Amino acid sequence: MLGRPKTPEQYVDLVDQAIFEIEDLRLSAEYDMESLGAATEFLQDLETDIRQLRASMADGSYRFGKENLRFMRVVEPQDERILPFKQLLLKINETHIKGLDVDDS
Length: 105
Hints:
Distance between the termini: 22 Å
Largest sheet: none
Number of helices: 4
Number of domains: 1
Mean pLDDT: 89
Structural class: mainly alpha
């Protein structure tokens, strides 16, 4: 994935993609508890936070900010082997802090 999204629609798509990835990982973890069991411990908090973010985008209350999104407290300590879409979540957080990648030229 290259730069930050350029449009609100692209940003929403990233969040929707994260929701899909979380659901997929949760299903995998439920299927294979031995190797992915640790993933289920933080997935509920992550899913709740991402869904709240998405809901705020849908109802118009979302605002870009200077602070990390709430889910980062769960994401940052995770290894990419446990959280294979960590880069996607980092990109969402970066966009939240820095805003859309709007090119003025």
